[in-house]
């Protein structure tokens, strides 16, 4: 294994060298970085040309100039990176130090959510092949996959930010909108819950009526201006999570696992009010500490409840604890929503259309978190919508292929439940080709983030890359390219190693 990793890393170094050489020459020959200065009538034009020539080594041929850049970049191996300077005189390492966290913050959330929801939807549609749900998801997937990223981003700015901010001025839902949303909700649930036409009609009517009542309540109470979940919603959702995690990882026949998850929900509900004063002044690491304590308590509950498979009880309890903790945190963010929206710098329009933060906004952990969230939501959703389609299609195709294999039929013939057949035999093997797709798409997501960041004026690697292209400045472009290349190489190596973890038949050999 170690020799394999070393061999792959050595090959990756040569790949990065070749790619960086090609990219550098493409940038160097793409234009004249002195064109803007030459066309100006500034009295100090000659001095500016001389300064920029010295800064970018323009008196050296591009091929030799690349090796000068490579000499500085090689110092990263000893912790003294020198990737040159931008035309504004800023070190590229400093610019990347600001841009990389912003881009990673955007891509991490979008990638994780796209993978989780895409794989889940793909598996469900594969299990219900040729159903109405399958056809609907297939149509929507191809629709999202064909949409340009920039067009989706512009639509989200218009309706997700400007339209929603205008709605918050009154926070009342018109009757016509309630009717349309209720009918759509009923239709969606009727498609999701299969069965006879009589069952689907009952589902449609029930879901539509429930949605209408909820929307009327939210409109009458102006919930959108002072949102919160409250202990009742947290308790009901927590119980649903307990049953869901038990069904997926243990089965309802394992009553000990179900009781462990339900006890965890009860502990979270009981501690809801005592935790409120503590959460008001909590920091990020304090919140992480509370989460660790919650998971430890859940582990103890699952361990002492035991059952014929203690591991299942622990898993169901800890997953439920994580879900309930997340609900409590979301509720706390909602309680601070009004304070954030009424801030003079926000001016009652909380959903941002540009930028990554509001300059000069001072606030506690919750206010700062809301500021980050409101700036991330639109670019994150735009990336998710495009990525979700591909993950849904790939996971569906992979699951369908696996479900027809001999070992799946053998598992069913042995009398195993459908849950065990799907989760333990089929799903794990269906993830093998998805590991390759995820690793391959990381670089594509960064490329998509360039367009998304430009539309939303999000100050990340995309903006740094486009500024370098526009100014014919190779140093920042090379900085972004080398970070992207290293990321792609690392994730492809992780994908190879994931094969052996997912499939015992695959072993990495030297």
**In whole angstroms, how far apart are the ends?**
6 Å
Instruction: Work out the strand percent.
Output: under 5%
Main beta-sheet annotation = none
Strand-pairing-aware structural class = mainly alpha
Rg estimate, integer Å: 27 Å
With helices defined by DSSP (H or I, 4 residues minimum), what is the helix count? Answer: 20
Residue-averaged pLDDT: 86
State the helicity in percent bands: over 70%
Number of beta-strand segments: 0
The residue ranges in which pLDDT falls below 50 over 5 or more consecutive positions are: none
Return the string of H and E elements: HHHHHHHHHHHHHHHHHHHH
Overall 3D shape: globular
Describe the structure.
- The structure is a single chain.
- This protein has 510 residues and is mainly α.
- Among the domains are: 2-96 and 462-502, no CATH class; 172-221, no CATH class.
- Helices cover 76% and strands 0% of the residues.
- Helix 7 packs across helix 18.
- The chain is globular, with a radius of gyration of 27 Å.
- The protein starts with a helix and ends in an 8-residue tail after the last helix.
- The mean pLDDT is 86.
What secondary-structure arrangement, pairings included, does this model have?
Blueprint: H1 2-28, H2 35-38, H3 45-56, H4 62-73, H5 92-127, H6 132-146, H7 149-168, H8 175-192, H9 197-220, H10 230-249, H11 255-270, H12 272-280, H13 284-305, H14 310-335, H15 337-341, H16 365-403, H17 406-413, H18 418-455, H19 461-470, H20 474-502
């Amino acid at each position: 294994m170690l020799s394999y990793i070393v061999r792959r890393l050595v090959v990756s170094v040569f790949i990065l060298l070749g790619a960086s050489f090609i990219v550098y020459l493409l940038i160097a020959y793409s234009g004249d970085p002195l064109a803007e200065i030459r066309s100006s009538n500034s009295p100090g034009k000659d001095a500016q040309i001389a300064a920029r020539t010295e800064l970018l080594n323009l008196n050296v041929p591009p091929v030799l100039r690349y090796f000068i850049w490579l000499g500085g970049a090689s110092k990263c191996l000893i912790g003294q990176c020198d990737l040159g300077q931008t035309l504004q005189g800023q070190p590229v390492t400093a610019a990347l130090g600001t841009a990389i966290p912003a881009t990673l913050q955007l891509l991490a959330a979008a990638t994780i959510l796209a993978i989780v929801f895409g794989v889940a939807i793909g598996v469900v549609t594969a299990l219900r092949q040729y159903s109405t749900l399958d056809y609907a998801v297939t149509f929507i997937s191809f629709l999202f996959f064909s949409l340009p990223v920039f067009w989706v981003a512009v639509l989200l700015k218009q309706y997700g930010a400007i339209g929603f901010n205008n709605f918050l001025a009154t926070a009342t839902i018109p009757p016509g909108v309630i009717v349309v949303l209720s009918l759509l909700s009923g239709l969606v649930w009727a498609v999701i819950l299969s069965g006879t036409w009589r069952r689907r009609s009952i589902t449609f009517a029930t879901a539509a009526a429930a949605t209408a009542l909820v929307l009327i309540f939210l409109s009458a109470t102006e919930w959108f201006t002072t949102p919160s979940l409250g202990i009742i919603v947290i308790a009901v959702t927590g119980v649903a999570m307990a049953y869901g995690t038990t069904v997926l990882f243990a089965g309802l026949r394992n009553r000990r696992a179900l009781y462990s998850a339900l006890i965890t929900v009860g502990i979270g509900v009981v501690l809801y009010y005592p935790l409120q004063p503590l959460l008001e002044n909590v920091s990020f690491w304090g919140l992480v500490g509370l989460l660790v304590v919650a998971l430890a308590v859940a582990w103890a509950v699952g361990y002492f409840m035991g059952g014929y498979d203690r591991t299942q009880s622990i898993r169901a309890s800890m997953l439920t604890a994580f879900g309930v903790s997340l609900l409590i945190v979301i509720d706390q963010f909602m309680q601070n929503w009004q304070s954030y929206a009424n801030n003079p710098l926000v001016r009652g329009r909380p959903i941002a259309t540009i930028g990554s933060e509001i300059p000069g906004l001072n606030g506690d952990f919750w206010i700062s978190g809301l500021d980050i969230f409101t700036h991330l939501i639109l670019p994150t959703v735009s990336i998710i919508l495009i990525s979700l389609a591909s993950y849904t299609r790939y996971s569906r195709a992979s699951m369908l292929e696996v479900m027809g294999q001999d070992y799946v039929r053998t598992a069913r013939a042995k009398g195993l439940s459908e849950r065990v057949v799907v989760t333990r035999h089929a799903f794990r093997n269906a993830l093998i080709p998805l590991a390759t797709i995820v690793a391959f798409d990381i670089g594509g997501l960064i490329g998509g983030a360039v367009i998304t960041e430009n539309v939303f004026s999000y100050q990340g690697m995309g903006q740094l890359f486009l500024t370098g292209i526009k100014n014919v400045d190779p140093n920042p472009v090379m900085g972004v390219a080398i970070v992207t290349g290293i990321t792609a190489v690392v994730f492809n190596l992780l994908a190879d190693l994931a094969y052996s973890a997912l499939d015992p038949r695959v072993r990495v050999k030297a």
